[in-house]
């Protein structure tokens, strides 16, 4: 597993200054009769079989672009799981193109309906762009793929399947958006509001949380956290849970209650988001580390401020015989324009 959606450095090339084209997509998977199957699409313009993917729209976050492109090219919505190794190559025009991939499962209306409701409508692509789709066993898919480089993400998907790391739920940890500075706020600390930038950061989390199928919202009751979650609550129609235990003051007196809350989210089978404050993050990260593989635990933020305002950490959690296990991490800064 990788800790970021794109794996592999750009490396030294003679075109480091060239513009980068960012694209995103997914390997849609399912298990039938004990066999891992994946979905490929055919592009008639190039007469090739590949993974559904496409370019980012302006101001679009990578996870949001991935679920949009997969829905456009397969006609069905998906929910993102663990990130997979990405690809990069030079286009004929000399530009660097990078493709970011995730494992993705078909969305289920009864489970993911609220998250799907928070997404923008998607229109399927025209037949002259994608004219065929096919489900294949993983070995058959490896042979059907037109480009050998597309087998890299598939190899990682197969490995995750064999490890039992494909069925996961997400636990997103969000630091509230940018707030009015303490030095310029003369009201009660719990009422300190977001700045205009903070409101924009809050709005930018909506498509990202929806991409991971978040159906549970927990937040500090303090104004800056509750307001950060408001756009997603409004878009999804979810009923949030607010807790004083996630505030700075209550955490200082009883960090064990925050730890218990995080453990509950890891043990749940629902994808969730927890919004809290910078001083609370060390306790949150400590619990994640206790339930992580060593490589994942070593990748957790270790320096103050741990997350920037509006930034989120997405933990992908698999159920194992020994309890919940964080098998992959992503740190995401939703774009704000």
UniProtKB/TrEMBL annotation:
Pfam families: His_Phos_1, NUDIX. InterPro entries: His_Pase_superF_clade-1, His_PPase_superfam, NUDIX_hydrolase-like_dom_sf, NUDIX_hydrolase_CS, NUDIX_hydrolase_dom, Nudix_hydrolase_domain. Gene3D superfamilies: Nucleoside Triphosphate Pyrophosphohydrolase, Phosphoglycerate mutase-like. Keywords: Hydrolase. CDD domains: HP_PGM_like, NUDIX_Ap6A_hydrolase. One of its GO terms (molecular function) is bis(5'-nucleosyl)-tetraphosphatase (asymmetrical) activity. One of its GO terms (biological process) is ATP biosynthetic process. The keyword Hydrolase applies. Residues 19-159 form the Nudix hydrolase domain. This is NUDIX hydrolase. It comes from Isoptericola variabilis (strain 225). The lineage of its organism: Bacteria, Bacillati, Actinomycetota, Actinomycetes, Micrococcales.
